[in-house]
Amino acid sequence: MDAKIFRDTLAQFATGITIVISQNIDRHLHGMTVNSFTSVSLHPPLVLFCADNRSDTFRAIEDSGHFTVSILSEEQEALSQRFALRGPQEALFQSLTLGESVSGIPYLADSLAFLDCTVDRIVPAGDHHLVLGRVDALNRLVPGRPLVYYQSQYQRLDAIPEPQD
């Protein structure tokens, strides 16, 4: 199967954008942009995302057994791009407002919402791993519209009224 056709076809599916954060055994923070995030189960509360096998953040999740998911607003496109780059992780977290979850893993305090998760299981899947997490804590943080990715571009949901608290 042609990889470009595969990618172009899947680009027809709109996704939200999240930042997944964890820390390695040395307590260094690692984060990555994720659009393969979804809820799995209410009882128990489970979520899932896909992580590239080469990702430092994935290795940190394996080390710590915990991660947070921050759901980005449409105003946070630059953060999505920032965490999509490979390179020194320390620079990614400079000048960000972070909250600390129950597990001790930070989350983006100015995102729409966050989830604090414990790894339930990790399943190898080609050049990625499926990371299934049990949600231990979560909260809505700020009102706004989600950042959406569709047809390989960031999109806005202008037709949807902005949620109010």
UniProtKB/TrEMBL annotation:
SMART domains: Flavin_Reduct. InterPro entries: Flavin_Rdtase-like_dom, Mannitol_DH_CS, NADH-dep_flavin_reductase, Split_barrel_FMN-bd. GO terms for biological process: mannitol metabolic process; pyrimidine nucleobase catabolic process. Residues 10-156 form the Flavin reductase like domain. PROSITE patterns: MANNITOL_DHGENASE. Keywords: NAD, Oxidoreductase. Coiled coil: none annotated. The keyword Cytoplasm does not apply. Pfam families: Flavin_Reduct. The keyword NAD applies. Signal peptide: none annotated. GO terms for molecular function: FMN binding; riboflavin reductase (NADPH) activity. Belongs to the mannitol dehydrogenase family. This is Flavin reductase family protein.
